[in-house]
């Protein structure tokens, strides 16, 4: 399926900045607001592609850094691209690798040219530049690709944030020049600027001058408190064009998603539902529960009586606890299925609420259900 990238803004909420939209890519259409499951190495851990479709995943995220190191983008390209390689026929977004390089700490060195780093796999030395990041992403065949930037550590001095943000803007221009638009992929710019409103505004100004298919807010969920994260969204999102998709990267909890939507975010990704699932933490309409707790030893109830996913229709908390305590692989499979269903169903409900003009009522009910949680569930949610 081939089509030109575009974004339709279908509805703007009257009582908030929440938006209902539709992103068109060469591989299919994405209804927004949307949550993107993370498939870092060309797989969403513990999920078959068919299972992802069952939980209504519209688009998944893969990562440049990891696929560059293993198995290599040229190999993936020779085998028909990432869609064929992983048997996924819906849209794919690739992160540029900037965040992963940032997380390497002392194993990387940043310069104007790019980032020289040591592989976490074998210690071998490699370089990622704006140009090579774009080359890798286009070789993988992603539908939406991200400009290469530096994810700024928190906290950082204003001087460091200023230098880094200006460098990311220069890198963004090089990414735009390296991007081969004729292949049909869409290139998103990433707003940096740390926790400074004026530097965020300056970053937006630079990116708008360059011009991108969409705009992401990066440098969040790096250890700052939630209130500061929301402040950055409040400063930044209104500066972005209304006719382009807005993506907040690496965020986050269900509460983060609801607050982000209310501020005008269209796209989210985070490892939280999958990583928590593998650690026995499950998301529900009344908060989180830790399935390893002894209180679930003989509990015949589903994870969430209000959930209609395959897991909640067929398995008890007692069985899921047994699987987890026994170290069974099926524990990760079932827990991940449920958590992703929860996240994706939540976003479906958000879209319906915006369409119906009742997003604020939906948001209030979302918090009310958590506040009304049983003491045991509330304890688990801590």
TrEMBL record:
<feature type="binding site">
    <location>
        <position position="312"/>
    </location>
    <ligand>
        <name>Zn(2+)</name>
    </ligand>
</feature>
<feature type="active site" description="Nucleophile">
    <location>
        <position position="269"/>
    </location>
</feature>
<feature type="region of interest" description="RNA binding; important for wobble base 34 recognition">
    <location>
        <begin position="274"/>
        <end position="278"/>
    </location>
</feature>
<feature type="binding site">
    <location>
        <begin position="95"/>
        <end position="99"/>
    </location>
    <ligand>
        <name>substrate</name>
    </ligand>
</feature>
<keyword id="KW-0671">Queuosine biosynthesis</keyword>
<dbReference type="Pfam" id="PF01702">
    <property type="entry name" value="TGT"/>
</dbReference>
<feature type="compositionally biased region" description="Basic and acidic residues">
    <location>
        <begin position="1"/>
        <end position="17"/>
    </location>
</feature>
<feature type="domain" description="tRNA-guanine(15) transglycosylase-like">
    <location>
        <begin position="16"/>
        <end position="371"/>
    </location>
</feature>
<keyword id="KW-0862">Zinc</keyword>
<protein>
    <recommendedName>
        <fullName>Queuine tRNA-ribosyltransferase</fullName>
        <ecNumber>2.4.2.29</ecNumber>
    </recommendedName>
</protein>
<dbReference type="InterPro" id="IPR002616">
    <property type="entry name" value="tRNA_ribo_trans-like"/>
</dbReference>
<keyword id="KW-0819">tRNA processing</keyword>
<keyword id="KW-0808">Transferase</keyword>
<feature type="binding site">
    <location>
        <position position="309"/>
    </location>
    <ligand>
        <name>Zn(2+)</name>
    </ligand>
</feature>
<comment type="similarity">
    <text>Belongs to the queuine tRNA-ribosyltransferase family.</text>
</comment>
<dbReference type="InterPro" id="IPR036511">
    <property type="entry name" value="TGT-like_sf"/>
</dbReference>
<comment type="subunit">
    <text>Homodimer. Within each dimer, one monomer is responsible for RNA recognition and catalysis, while the other monomer binds to the replacement base PreQ1.</text>
</comment>
<feature type="binding site">
    <location>
        <position position="307"/>
    </location>
    <ligand>
        <name>Zn(2+)</name>
    </ligand>
</feature>
<feature type="binding site">
    <location>
        <position position="192"/>
    </location>
    <ligand>
        <name>substrate</name>
    </ligand>
</feature>
<feature type="binding site">
    <location>
        <position position="338"/>
    </location>
    <ligand>
        <name>Zn(2+)</name>
    </ligand>
</feature>
<feature type="binding site">
    <location>
        <position position="149"/>
    </location>
    <ligand>
        <name>substrate</name>
    </ligand>
</feature>
<keyword id="KW-0328">Glycosyltransferase</keyword>
<feature type="region of interest" description="RNA binding">
    <location>
        <begin position="250"/>
        <end position="256"/>
    </location>
</feature>
<comment type="function">
    <text>Catalyzes the base-exchange of a guanine (G) residue with the queuine precursor 7-aminomethyl-7-deazaguanine (PreQ1) at position 34 (anticodon wobble position) in tRNAs with GU(N) anticodons (tRNA-Asp, -Asn, -His and -Tyr). Catalysis occurs through a double-displacement mechanism. The nucleophile active site attacks the C1' of nucleotide 34 to detach the guanine base from the RNA, forming a covalent enzyme-RNA intermediate. The proton acceptor active site deprotonates the incoming PreQ1, allowing a nucleophilic attack on the C1' of the ribose to form the product.</text>
</comment>
<feature type="binding site">
    <location>
        <position position="219"/>
    </location>
    <ligand>
        <name>substrate</name>
    </ligand>
</feature>
<feature type="region of interest" description="Disordered">
    <location>
        <begin position="1"/>
        <end position="27"/>
    </location>
</feature>
<dbReference type="InterPro" id="IPR050076">
    <property type="entry name" value="ArchSynthase1/Queuine_TRR"/>
</dbReference>
<keyword id="KW-0479">Metal-binding</keyword>
<comment type="pathway">
    <text>tRNA modification; tRNA-queuosine biosynthesis.</text>
</comment>
<dbReference type="InterPro" id="IPR004803">
    <property type="entry name" value="TGT"/>
</dbReference>
<feature type="active site" description="Proton acceptor">
    <location>
        <position position="95"/>
    </location>
</feature>
